Fold this protein.
Amino acid sequence: MRSYMFKHAVAFWTIMVLTVIGLINSILDGEWTALIFPLIIAGLLFWFYKRPPRAFGGKQPKIKPSKATMEKIAQNKTGYKSGTTTKKRKTYPFHVIDGQKKTKNDDDLPKYH
């Protein structure tokens, strides 16, 4: 995996160095018109990178919230809570269900923890 990434890094930097050498050579030769096309391409790439078109950006699917979600949003907006809210925890103590194991101290164990 590491050598694969290294090969791509070497290829990328080689292309960048050759591009800079080509740009410097074009500027020194006075061929300003040869730079118009690469500058337009670079500008378009930068523009589409910063503001991708909607067709390529991937539209988010519209998700319809559930009825319960809409009720919660409505409650938060109005500020009141209806009496239909349920408690998250049960009020009665934990009850031990008898299993199939037989131990010698069954009478000593309490039914509730």
Summary: The radius of gyration is 35 Å. Residues 2-29 form the longest helix (28 residues). The helical segments are 2-29, 36-50, 54-57, 67-78. The mean pLDDT is 77.
